[in-house]
């Protein structure tokens, strides 16, 4: 399983809230893209179907699909949702990260 701890209750609740108004979507898909100064950034999008090579993780009724390209990168990662006075965002707590850049959107494994 790529997302070992999968999602915090905060992330589960936010995904449920987001999908509530999108009955045609069955869950969200997590991936990685080449971007930023250290190489990769996480992506998150609504999905209507499970891809052939996607890994499916279900927690508390929430379905998260992980693209094949992202499965090894996300090994051991916990998905969280955090809010403060200035922002709200999904955060991926990855214990395998060895470095980050100042832009805050990429990582290096």
State the CATH topology.
Answer: Hypothetical Protein Aq_1857, Chain: A
Q: How many helical elements?
A: 2
CATH class: Mainly Beta
Share of helical residues: 10-25%
Strand content: 35-45%
How do the strands and helices of this protein lay out in sequence?
Elements: E1 6-7, H1 9-20, E2 27-34, E3 40-47, E4 55-59, E5 62-66, H2 68-71, E6 78-83, E7 88-93, E8 99-100, E9 107-108
Parallel strand pairs: 1-6, 2-5
Antiparallel strand pairs: 2-3, 4-5, 6-7, 8-9
Provide structural commentary.
Involved in the maturation of mitochondrial 4Fe-4S proteins functioning late in the iron-sulfur cluster assembly pathway. Probably involved in the binding of an intermediate of Fe/S cluster assembly. With 109 residues, the chain is mainly beta. 15% of the residues lie in helices and 40% in strands. It contains two helices and nine strands, in the order βαββββαββββ. It has helices at residues 9-20, 68-71; strands at residues 6-7, 27-34, 40-47, 55-59, 62-66, 78-83, 88-93, 99-100, 107-108. A four-stranded mixed beta sheet has the order 3-2-5-4. A hairpin with a 6-residue loop joins strand 8 (99-100) and strand 9. The longest helix has 12 residues, at 9-20. It starts with 5 loop residues before the first strand and ends with a strand.
Structure at a glance:
Belongs to the HesB/IscA family. With 109 residues, the chain is mainly beta.
Task: Name its key features.
single chain; 109 residues; mainly beta; 4-stranded mixed sheet; 9 strands; 15% helix; globular
